[in-house]
Structures are given as C-alpha cells and as structure tokens.
Amino acid sequence: MAEEPNLNEAILTVEDTHTFIGHHHILQGLSFEARADAVTVLIGRNGAGKSTALRTVMGLLPASQGTIIYNGQEIQNKKPYEIARMGIGFVPEDMGIFANLTVEENMRVAMLIEDEATGQRLEQTLDMFRDLKNFWRAQAGILSGGQKQMLAIARAIVNQTSLLLIDEPSKGLAPIIVDALIEAINQIKMHSVVVLVEQNFYMASCVGDHFYILDDGMVVHDGNMVDLVDDDELKSRYLGI
C-alpha cells in the first residue's frame, strides 16, 4: 500500500470526458474528482456509465474527448499497463481472477515486482483477508464468490497503490460478506484513495464520504454521502430507492 497522500488533495480529476463503446455515446462530458481525504462513490441506475467511467480512467476504454489527471499528470492517452505502473489499482466487476491458478499464483502474477516492500504488503493483505491464507495452495476457481472478491481486491493492493478503483464489489454477495468487504475497504482507505462504483446503497453509505450520481453518462448531483442518506427525494429520483 502506498504512503498516505496529503489531505484535501485531488489525486484524480476527470474533466469533460466522453467515451464511446461502438456507436454508443456512454460518457457524455463526465467530470468528477477523487480527493485524498475521501472515498468517492459513483452511483446511479444501471447503464448510467459508472463502470465505463472506471474503465476509461484505467485506459481500458479510450476517451474520445476530455482530460484525466492523476497526481498532476494527464493519463487519458496512456496504456492500461502504464497506468497500473503509476500506482492505480483496478478491481473489475467480473473480478478478473485466474480460476485455474492457485491463490498464491494469482497474487504473484499480480505483483509488479517481488521485493521486501511487496512482501510486507502481501502479509498485511493476508491479515486483512484471512480466508486467502487458508486457500493459499488451492485453485482460485473453488473459492466462494466472497472469497473471489477478496482475492480480486488483494491482487490490486499488493502493489504500491495510491488510487484504487473498485467496480461493484458487493454484487451477488450475501450480507455477511458485504459487511466484511465494508470493513476491508474502511481499512484500505487509510492508505489508498478509493473510487467505488456500487449499486448497494447500504455499502456505499457505509464506506463513502463523497458521492457523484451519474445519469446518461454525466454527473447530475454530487455532495457528502451523509446528506444523501437523508435525502429520500434524491434517492427516489435517481436511484429508485
């Protein structure tokens, strides 16, 4: 895990970003920022562009227009591997683990380098996700859904990660596993800036500090999460809650 960044600093700034998937104009002038003192949550209905936003930041989808600035550097034209080496970790919605590899092999494949610092982060990560220790030599394909999600997050933070992008970590998981992930993210945010896409409003409200509501590929409302929790009208209009 990376050193704790300066508070109130915007580590990530997305400005007027447009992204197409085929002929579909998904992000239509998206702008948001992630500060070092907050977990930023992107929320909205299905198809609002939340996952596309993370994939665009990570370079997996090209931005046709706009600027993405990470730690003072423009990254919108960089390759995904270049972005990863700059200290951005990504946990995709489908987790992206290798089912035929063991838990250990999954972790080692994810390591950019194997040095003492990486070894220390690995130990810290395994202390956070103790189930991974128990299945260290087992194929990742036999893990439960919750354990696979833990492995996906663990792979992203074993490197020196200043910014962690997490896409729908609670999807399909039992409430007790969601609570475990909430605890883990609350630990991770002490060391890394987190941008979270999440449909589960309970989880979003437990870990989020600042929110952006997306609709049709742009931000329609943002503010402090504590205020959104009490705003029934806004939740009903944009989230269907």
What does this structure look like?
With 241 residues, the chain is an alpha/beta fold. It has a single domain (10-228), classed as Rossmann fold (3-Layer(aba) Sandwich), CATH 3.40.50.300. It is built from 10 helices and 10 strands. It has helices spanning 50-57, 80-85, 103-110, 116-128, 130-134, 145-157, 175-188, 201-207, 225-229, 232-239, and strands at residues 10-21, 24-35, 40-43, 63-70, 73-74, 88-91, 163-167, 193-197, 210-215, 218-224. The protein has a 6-stranded mixed sheet with strand order 6-7-8-3-9-10, sandwiched between helices. It has a 4-stranded antiparallel sheet with strand order 2-1-4-5, covered by helices on one side. The longest helix has 14 residues, at 175-188. The protein starts with 9 loop residues before the first strand and ends with a helix. The model is unreliable at 1-5 (pLDDT under 50).
Please give a handful of descriptors for the protein shown.
241 residues, Rossmann fold, 10 helices, 10 strands, disordered N terminus
Secondary-structure blueprint:
Elements lengths: L9 E12 L2 E12 L4 E4 L6 H8 L5 E8 L2 E2 L5 H6 L2 E4 L11 H8 L5 H13 L1 H5 L10 H13 L5 E5 L7 H14 L4 E5 L3 H7 L2 E6 L2 E7 H5 L2 H8 L2
Parallel strand pairs: 3-8, 3-9, 6-7, 7-8
Antiparallel strand pairs: 1-2, 1-4, 4-5, 9-10
